[in-house]
Amino acid sequence: MSRHLPAFLIMTPMLGAFLSPLAVMLGRTARNAVLVLFSLATLVISLGIVSATMGGNVLVYVMGGESYTLTMPSGMAYPVRIMFEIDGFNALMILCVAAATFAGALFSVAYMDRFSGWKRYMSLYFMMATGALGMCATGDLFNFFVFVEVSSIASFGLVAFWRDKPEAIEASFKYMLVSQIAAMLLLIALGALYGKYNALNMAAIASMARGGTLDKIVLALFVIVLAFKCGAFPMHTWMPDAYAEAPAGVTCLLVTVSQASFYGLIRICFSIFPGVGGAVVPWILIVLGCASMFFGVMMAVVQHEIKRLMGYHSISQVGYMLMAMGVGLLAAGGAEGVYGFKAMTGGIFHMVNYSVYKALLFLCAGALYYATGTRDLDRMGGLVRSMPWTAGMFVIAAAAISGLPPFNGFISKWMIYESSFAVHPALTAIAMITSVLTLASFAKVFQAAFLGPAKAALSGVREVPCAMLAGMAALTLFILLLTLFPSWFTSRLFDNAAHALLNHQGYVSAVMGGV
Predict the structure, then answer these.
(1) Domain ranges across the chain
(2) Which of 64, 141, 178, 408 could lock 200 by a disulfide, CB 3.0 to 4.6 Å apart?
(3) Cα gap 259→485, rounded to integer Å
(4) Considering the entire predicted model, what is its pTM?
């Protein structure tokens, strides 16, 4: 059974999506059971995949093949095949998506109980998870495009879930517009690759690519499209609106959907087109990262609506990862190779950290909205007395994202600071200034929401239901594990992921040998 884990990874949430309408018809208990159990099963499968890829192993799984052919009206026949390739890098991303899916599902059991539309919510929720998991697991660029569209279409519906709110419709339309422009550019890039190489398998293209003019154009399109999708500045405009208007459980998962696009960007730069474009591509990633860090946090500082504030912080956090991977791509093969590897390890560590603590922060924001009926910080205050558990978990997530020692965010940021300093001290200065502003921003949020005198209008506020606290607690536990055992995670998972990215020839050999 273990060798079929990649197939089960996609089939489980997809089956949950198809069973959701029936479960809703059977009542509240069946609905909640399907939502929680299928998301838990997805998490367990992802843990099995992470375990299977430790030690440098690569999982290659093929569905279909030469014996499964699609016959066209012209008489031509094409093999129907879906290939999954999972190494130490994308196994971590799969774990992040699955963890966010499970935490968001637990949270949604109580959070969404006040609302109708459960059939749509559950089906789209599981399909969004399916799309994100498929993006991380696939070894074929066309299937990557298909999974991008699956996750995008589900996201459009969930961002506009409260369709009676004009802001939600506007946010969904904006997200849909930029996503479809990105999808068209992505399809053009895939068509160019297929026309040149007669293949769309990632490893096959990597084995044939020689860095010609067409390869450089395609790589530029990929960088633009996937930077668009992961919310890098200046292509970030969809992110604060979408994150603010989606239900909190959806935003928790939406964070990892954008991270799946970041995964695709890094996979293409390191595994398919390594060295193409020379130092230009690394510096593009570094510049995008610095701009995203600085402008994202500057916009966050002035916000008064809590989910929009966190949306702008997402842009800033994406900047850290882009800069780290740019430094890694620039330095890994040169005299500063040790710092390049540390930058990659720190960037991967931060990718996992961001997926966890940002998801937790959005759940905390959702809990505040659930309890108070407002997202405006100016209308909150004194909530630490009535919502102590939410306040405690918010403090942990805020300390982690701000990079306060000894939390996990500090460890990954320190690795990025140290490695980026070897390239240019200005990069470290920008990153550290961003961290200080992040701390100031979340100190403002904590003071406005939880400290001070309680507002008269919030006198009846109580702690949120246990199911919502359980969803937040699952992510809090993950943060504490990363904080308490960073060496274990680094030596067994993050270093393994960085080696997998650097081992271009090993990636090609593992996948091509498995076809």
Answers:
(1) 2-509
(2) 141
(3) 23
(4) 0.91
